[in-house]
Amino acid sequence: MSEVKQALVQAADAARFAPSIHNTQPWRWVVRADRLELFAVAERQLQAQDPDARMLLLSCGAALHHAQVALDAEGWAYSVDRPAALAPDAPLAVITPGERRPAEPEATRHLQMLRVRRTDRRTVGEEAVGETVLDELVKATEQSGARLHVLGRDQVLELAVAVEHAQSAETADDRAQAELAEWVGGERPEGTGIPSASLPVEVPLTTVAERDFQTAGTVTAGGGHDRAATYAVLYGPGDAEQDWLRAGESLSRLWLSATEHAVSLLPFSGPVEVPFAREALRRILGGTGMPYLAIRLGLQDPAHTAPPHTPRLAADQVIDVMEEG
């Protein structure tokens, strides 16, 4: 196998650790001699909660950024083609490597954060994230095309109402609840979904309620509240397919930067999945953009040990290495 192709295989393998909606991992990579192609996997789309595939595309965008992080860490220059119009059975994006040069130390750190990053649904610590760090997170988000709007106190209360209404709507939807049960709880030996070991015993009592997965986990939620948490909305200029892919890249970049600064990040997709709740987020943004996710940021509670990583599909289930010629 050529050096270029080996690097592309390693990039696709690193992308397996990307975050995704309910850990569905809805992506497939095709490694060719001179390029890496990213495809969506419709069989792992949430049909009831994500009928328009927005969260699927956002998840694939996070995987796309993870692959770029791996190439950066090995010193590869590359270009990324994101077709403006997505055709059936066509790739969402294509990475084409160029020349190799010495890797930047920052790129190596980002790759390390890729393996450390995880979702923590427990309460955060009692110390707020500093303004300097928040500024760094905002800048990191903007490097991939989306933006991060940090909410003021009154806007946090508006977000809490939107989240509550979205939760009520999805709880009343039998199809959504049945789908949730397929992806959440238990030991998840098949390599997808959220296991009980990654869920709190009970939903923490916070101003902005976390998603109620309708199943008890095994992790102690923590005794604090969210008074020191910072809430924000990830948003961008458009609602097209490539906008959601870019949003996923921005989420990945933001999450890795947050991990590097020891900041816990928890995404809230519920208020984006329900149309009237998403409109509420648009009003919070003052109509300046399209909301992609609500996000909680906070310093980890020093009493908490790191939660376990969610399971991952095996490499041969998400990566196809093509024999050329």
TrEMBL record:
The GO terms describing molecular function are: oxidoreductase activity
InterPro entries given for it? Nitroreductase-like, Nitroreductase/BluB
Name the SUPFAM superfamilies for this protein: FMN-dependent nitroreductase-like (SSF55469)
* Top-level taxon of origin: Bacteria
PANTHER family according to UniProt: NAD(P)H NITROREDUCTASE RV3131-RELATED (PTHR23026:SF123), NADPH NITROREDUCTASE (PTHR23026)
What is this protein identified as? Nitroreductase
Per the UniProt record, the source organism is Actinoplanes awajinensis subsp. mycoplanecinus
Q: What is the lineage of its organism?
A: Bacteria, Bacillati, Actinomycetota, Actinomycetes, Micromonosporales
